[in-house]
Amino acid sequence: MSELSVNHLLGIKYLNKEDIDLIFKTADHFKEVINRPIKKVPSLRDITIANLFFENSTRTRLSFELAEKRLSADVINFSAASSSVKKGETLIDTVNNILAMKVDMVVMRHPNPGAGIFLSKHVNASIINAGDGTHEHPTQALLDSYSIREKLGEVAGKKILIVGDIMHSRVALSNIFALKLQGAEVKVCGPKTLIPKHIESLGVTVETNLVKALEWCDVANMLRVQNERMEISYFPTTREYTQQFGLNKEILDSLKKQIVVMHPGPINRGVEITSDVADSKQAIILDQVQNGVAVRMAVIYLLASKINR
Amino acid sequence: MLNTLSGIKKNLTFVFTTLAVSNMSQKVLLNSKEINIILRRLACQLVENHPNFENTVIIGIQPRGVFLADRIIQLLEEEYNITNVEYGQLDITFYRDDFRRSIKPLEANKTKIDFIVEDKQVIFIDDVLFTGRSIRSALTAIQSFGRPKEIELLTLIDRRFSRHLPIQPDYNGRQVDAINDEQVKVNWKEVHGEDTVYLLPTSNTEIEAIQKKKNSK
Question: What CATH number does the domain containing A104 carry?
Answer without folding.
Answer: 3.40.50.1370
